[in-house]
Amino acid sequence: MRIRKWTVSLFVLVCAVILPFSSAFAALEKVGTYGLTINTGQETGKLTYYRTSYIHSDGGSFKVCNKNMGTTKFFVYEYDPNGGYGNDDYVYSWTLSMGKCYTFTNLDKFKDGDNNKAELYVKAALPSGGLAFERQVILYD
């Protein structure tokens, strides 16, 4: 009887420790690798803004990884089709070196529209020139 109580106690402890972590990480799945293409009309000095296409996010967390660029500051925005040019919602920004990632959290407040999703995109200011496959991010939702 004593061994059974110990086994049950150990099982409950293991479940209490593992389940919160496994469910948190299971929610993030790789959406894909996206090239940053020129965002027409937005230039600052010698830097040009580049961006990904829209990602329909379930909210919660959104992870951005710098695949193949030097240290770059990334901006995450939520697309607002009714707001007109320049009225997209700023979500967050972070500087990442090549191969590094950052997870943006608490994005449920950006879900909207008929699909109840957040239309997110990543933007970065980089020197002009180059091709999209030379400026890539890996996105997880």
Rg:
20 Å
Please provide the ordered H/E string of secondary-structure elements.
HEEEEEEEEEE
Number of domains: 1
The CATH class turns out to be: Mainly Beta
Overall geometry comes to globular
Q: Main sheet? A: 6 strands, antiparallel
Q: Determine the strand fraction and express it as a percent band.
A: 35-45%
Q: What is the number of strand segments? A: 10
The secondary-structure class comes to: alpha+beta
In percent, how helical is the residue content? 10-25%
In whole angstroms, how far apart are the ends?
Answer: 46 Å
User: CATH fold name, please?
Assistant: Jelly Rolls
* Mean pLDDT rating: 79
* Unreliable segments of 5+ consecutive residues: 19-26
| CATH architecture label | Sandwich
Oligomeric status: single chain
Number of helices: 1
Signal peptide: 1-26
Keywords: Signal
3D architecture notes:
- The protein has one helix at residues 2-26, and strands at 30-35, 37-44, 47-51, 55-57, 62-66, 72-78, 89-96, 101-104, 118-127, 136-140.
- By secondary structure, it is an alpha+beta fold.
- Mean pLDDT is 79; it is low at 19-26.
